[in-house]
Specification:
The chain is an alpha+beta fold. 35% of the residues lie in helices and 28% in strands. The protein has 4 helices and 4 strands, in the order E-E-E-H-H-H-E-H.
């Protein structure tokens, strides 16, 4: 038997001016059904953001990224999503949207430690 489980992940992207389509990675959301695990880690590169849009709402974008993390964590800070299981919260977060903070496509992999995988993907794909 394998000691690794299937996981899914999606990048969280910032699209400062939706009409231009320019974007950069600002986080990752990881879901592992076998472990009932869902988590997000975010990192906003303000220099990239302001290079793409000098008038960007930095505080608003930080708040949106923070909301992604809170929804994953569940509990009272997740609002209505607190009642949902990890899988439903992940599916809601990866649903396409045309806002400044958008999910990317979903990818899969195998991991023995979803939390470590979340940190690894943040370092590899975002920072």
């Amino acid at each position: 038997m394998s000691d690794r489980d299937v996981f899914e992940y999606a990048l969280v992207r910032v699209v400062p001016r939706v009409e231009r389509g320019e974007r950069f990675n600002a986080g990752v959301v990881v879901y592992c059904r076998a472990k009932s695990y869902v988590a997000a880690r975010t990192h906003l590169d303000e220099a990239k953001l302001l290079a793409l849009d000098p008038a960007a709402d930095v505080a608003g974008i930080r708040a949106a990224l923070g909301a992604v993390e809170r929804i994953c964590e569940g509990g009272a800070a997740a609002g209505q999503a607190a009642r949902d299981d990890a899988g439903r919260r992940f599916r809601w977060l990866i649903a396409p949207r045309s806002t400044v903070v958008q999910p990317g496509p979903v990818h899969t992999g195998l991991t023995a430690d979803p939390a470590a995988e979340t940190d690894r993907l943040l370092g590899l794909l975002v920072r």
